Each structure stands twice: as structure tokens, then as C-alpha cells.
């Protein structure tokens, strides 16, 4: 790639022309691609859909906690919880959408109900008698009932349905009913909820996330890394990798799917977003082909860091975060950000808290810094509208 041929423009924020254009015609909005998973980006995604219907969200299928873990254990399948969660964030919530389907897919079974009661509720859904099923029009109602019927017939007698997401069960049923092909059921799910954007897993593998710590210990399982379901790690993470086994350390490589490569190569803007740094962001960069696709895209790449405490970032400052992203994509120890990361985006107050030496070090890596008021007053949370307007102003 000859980067000397690139043309750059003056950037201003807010850019009223680009913002108004996107608000008026979001169906023609920019293809902003996020490497993410988890729920950290959901609020921003829910706002961004008012500016573009073409955002792309590549999420990890390596989650090993919560109700997703139960489905993974039961059917040896990719994790689908983050996939469902992001699709719901992008769902069309206007009168043009499907509010009855949206409500059903967001519904969870009672966390305290008995196995018998929860199975009976699922049976009522399959039979079309549940109050959340009856308002849904055909043929969508039959499609949903079919997927739930598959799940009901396949789960073991002691499968724990407490707190189970109906959306997850529908996707899992479709996965099992379509020769374990995830993409086709994701497409159907997207159409059912009227998703105003594209959501895909980075790969459709059943592998597990693993981490090597600075002290040499190996931790397997996303839920053991995030510090949310289990106690936070006491030793910093040195690197992450994929394991074929959820129990034993069996390192394995996998290839990113070809259509995902095309999405990355053709995105108008690539954003490394906030969220669990290793298990949500960097995990998406592990499959073979992702790094080359990023580097072959000549458009801007930006990093929007976490504001609050991320247990996975133990001992990491901004410099280390930027360096880790660059090293993960480059695969080299030398620090060369060209084609990998152009800008670090910082909120004004957050920027003022950073040491001058850290800012200088980041700039010396070839990463410039863009500063804007992006945080809600007196909080540690991004203003979703400000971030959305900032991102579309960049394109």
C-alpha cells in the first residue's frame, strides 16, 4: 500500500454538514467498523443508528460466561450472547420496526423459576399461546416457534433455563436447525428485528479465549479473564490466544471469514472501541487475516479508550494500550503504527489528566491525538450522541 498517495482533509468537530447529512439520510451513512463484543458499545450503537444504518460490528464468539456458556456447553457452539445484544441495540425501534419481536427477543425467563415452570413457559411459546408470541404476525411467528421448538427438543432434561434469554434460544435453535451455520440465522434474526447495521461474529468457531499472564500462568476461559464473573486477575496479562479446549491449553489458529475480510478492507472508518480490552477488543484481532485486512484499508483507524476501570487493563496506561493494539496487529516487536492506528480520541477532561510525557510518547509512535468534549457531565460515561457525531464527522 502506497500511503504517500493518500489525500487528507481538514477535520472540524462538530462538522454540521456531515452530521446533518447523516441524520437526514442514515441509510446512506458511512461504514464505520467496530471490533467489539460485550455491552460496552451498546449505548453508543443505539444512538449511532440515527446517523448511519451501515455500521459494522464484528463481535467475538468466545464468551464463556452467563447463559451463553450454558448453550456452548450443551451444544458445542459459538457464544451468541454478545451477537444478540448488539443486534438488539441496532434494532429498528421506530413504527417501521417490529416492536413485538423486539420485546420477545429481549425477554428472559425467570431467574428463580423451577425447571418445570420454565419448560412450560417455553412450551407455550412453541405452541403459539404465550402472550409475547400471539401479537407477532405470520410468517415471523412460525419462524420463531420453529427455532424454539428445535431448542425445546434438543436440550437435556436438566438444562438450566433460569434467566435464559429467549433471543439466545431462538438463535441457538436456528443454528442447530441450519446445519450449525450461524450466518444464515444471524441474517434472519437481523431481518426480524430490523437491524439498522451489520453484526457478525469475527469467526464462527467454537474455540476458547486464553491468556498468558506476566508470571507465566495460563488462564483459559473468557469468564476467568474479564474480572466480572470471577475475581479480577492479580497479575497483568502478557498476551491472549485461542485454545481448542476450554480446560487444557491447546493453542490453535483460525482464519477470519472472507466476507469479514472484505468488510474490514472496505470500511470507511475503523474504530477500536471501549469495552473489555483483551476479551472484547483484542480477541477480534486474533484470527489470521484480520491484521492484513486492517493494514490494507487506507482509511482512518481510531482508538476510543475506556474511561472507567477495566480489570483486564491491570497496570496499563494509555501508552501501553496504544502499544498493545499496534503490536497485536503488526505481529512485531517494533512499533510502527502506519496502517494500524492513526488517532487516539480523548475526551477534553481526560486529556488534561494525562502526563505530557505519555502524550509525547504516543505521538512519537505515529499516533496523533484528537480531543473533544465526549463525556457526560460529572460522569465516567461517554455521551453517546457526542461520540456518534464525532465519528461521522471523521468520515
From TrEMBL:
<dbReference type="InterPro" id="IPR038136">
    <property type="entry name" value="CofD-like_dom_sf"/>
</dbReference>
<protein>
    <submittedName>
        <fullName>GAK system CofD-like protein</fullName>
    </submittedName>
</protein>
<dbReference type="InterPro" id="IPR027591">
    <property type="entry name" value="CofD-rel_GAK"/>
</dbReference>
<dbReference type="InterPro" id="IPR002882">
    <property type="entry name" value="CofD"/>
</dbReference>
<dbReference type="Pfam" id="PF01933">
    <property type="entry name" value="CofD"/>
</dbReference>
